[in-house]
UniProtKB/TrEMBL annotation:
Residues 76-209 form the Methyltransferase FkbM domain. InterPro entries: FkbM_mtfrase, SAM-dependent_MTases_sf. GO terms for molecular function: methyltransferase activity. Keywords: Methyltransferase, Transferase. Pfam families: Methyltransf_21. GO terms for biological process: methylation. It comes from the Bacteria. This is Methyltransferase, FkbM family. Gene3D superfamilies: Vaccinia Virus protein VP39.
Amino acid sequence: MDGHETPRDPYIHSRGLKIPKHPQITTGRVRGALRGGTYERKECDAVSRVVRAGDCVLELGGGIGYMSTLLSVKKKVARVVSYEANPMLLPYIASVHEANGVKNVEVRNALLAPESGAPVDFHIRQNFLASSLDREADPEGVTGTVQVPRHGLADVLPEVTPDVLVCDIEGAEAELLPAGDWSGLRCAVIELHPQWIGQAGVQAVFDAMQRAGLTYFPKASEAKVVTFRRGW
């Protein structure tokens, strides 16, 4: 357990961060992983090895705001631009940032796509974390549908000019990453989803990083979390 909590403590303490308790988000397995310091452990271990103070980070898949908070507080990055398609998570992400004094993270409720275009349907489920673009994953669980803006890579990358990419987008990496010019990156931490993208999708991600001049870095990679960096 990371830190000491009392029954009245409104926070879960995790890796030195304060994570506000929430009846629908910090439940069960998530709560246990946060308290045990194992939440997003592979990604956290990877960024701890390759991210530097002063970096600009582009995060795809903001989740509950944990990684962006860790980057800001522990790694002292200059800026994080975080894309999170799930609008139901935005107030909670803001509460995580506020609890930890984070002021250098910009959260964009949008989908980063190979090309800009019309908004896309995002399906809300009672379990916030199960909400997704894929209605058919659990059609009975959908409680509402909202439209989320779509931002194109060709516009976003020159605007943000990231040093680091942190990407966990549930299989969309196989389509998105090959469509971008990532040659400005120093490193990238990507969670692969081979169960959805298959061997061809995994290869497409590796090829995209190679075209950008980045090399697979095994010391900061574990299982489905792969890290690439420039040079050796």
